[in-house]
Write a structure and sequence with these properties.
- The chain is of the alpha/beta class.
- 24% of the residues lie in helices and 26% in strands.
- It has seven helices and twelve strands.
- The chain has a seven-stranded mixed β-sheet with strand order 4-1-2-3-5-6-7. A five-stranded mixed β-sheet has the order 8-9-10-11-12, covered by helices on one side.
- Strand 5, helix 3 and strand 6 form a beta-alpha-beta unit.
- The protein starts with a helix and ends in an 11-residue tail after the last helix.
- The site of zinc ion has 4 residues, from loops.
Length: 273
């Protein structure tokens, strides 16, 4: 009798563990963080021949994702040090973006009760300074980056990342946790190893985070390619790949720098689940 009871208890425990594991899979929530605000001096740098000489407000966005297996950060924004600069970070070329940092990344994580050491994994869309500004706040976090981006020589052949930072170099798409909830999508063209991130949320549905594969809605709709992109045709191919994914997955496209769109979305501490 006692034996049967123990067996039943063991079976019950096994069932409840099974249920917990099933619930624990996948992405649980996503926070949108303010990783910079700026003004682009001449928007035609991003849309050749269109809106020449006109300025445009930009935002810079990071995304903190709670996966069942730990915290994951997508893009890191303008360096937190810019928050202390009264006039922000003025570009050398006035046609480019003058960035400010109204709130640090560190402060936004602290507000959510997330310590830098809690971030187990991170990925950046590409290595422009407004995306990698705070990578080294998370020296322990595994960095997922395309090999083509990692090995793209920087100014004076400088490496793009600290060589001691733990890294997984990718060649193409990667389902990060093997459960389909976070998939890095190779979208080269803006830079040689640019990538985007597909996130499957339980209630919100599927969202494709653009990185700089596109900078704002009008460029997406008209498939316009910024003149400074490293691959013009590659960028167009990447946009078609993204359009295919959006259609197949019935996904939303969230464009990193698009202020008009971001103003319609919930910012941390609110979240998407
Ligand atoms: Zn960029």
């Amino acid at each position: 009798m006692k034996k049967i009871f123990l067996l039943l208890a063991a079976a019950g425990l096994w069932l409840s563990l099974g249920a917990a594991f099933a619930q624990g899979k996948g992405v649980e929530r996503l926070y949108i963080l303010n990783c910079g605000e700026g003004v682009a001096g001449d928007i035609s740098r991003w849309s050749p021949g269109v809106n020449v000489g006109k300025s445009m407000d930009f935002v810079d966005t990071c995304y903190l994702i709670k996966h069942a297996s730990g915290w994951f950060l997508w893009d890191t924004g303008i360096p937190d040090a810019v928050a202390a600069m009264p006039n922000g970070l003025a570009p050398a070329d006035p046609r480019m973006t003058h960035w400010r940092r109204p709130k640090t990344l560190a402060a936004q994580l602290a507000e959510l009760g997330v310590k830098p050491g809690d971030v187990k994994g991170m990925a950046v869309s590409h290595t422009h300074p407004d995306h990698i500004g705070n990578v080294e706040q998370f020296p322990q976090a595994m960095l997922y980056v395309q090999k083509a981006e990692y090995e793209w020589p920087g100014a004076n052949n400088a490496p793009r990342f600290k060589p001691e930072h733990p890294v997984t170099k990718l060649e193409g798409d990667r389902d990060l946790f093997g459960d389909g909830s976070l998939t890095l999508v190779s979208t080269p063209g803006h830079t040689p190893g640019h990538q985007s991130l597909l996130v499957r949320l339980p209630k919100t549905g599927t969202v494709l985070l653009s990185g700089d594969a596109v900078h704002f809605r009008a460029n997406w709709e008209n498939r316009r390619v910024p003149s400074a992109n490293t691959g013009q045709e590659e960028t167009k191919k990447s946009m078609e790949k993204m359009a295919g994914i959006l259609a197949k997955e019935h996904a939303q496209l969230w464009i990193n720098h698009d202020k008009a769109q971001r103003d319609t979305l919930k910012l941390a501490p609110e979240f998407y689940d």
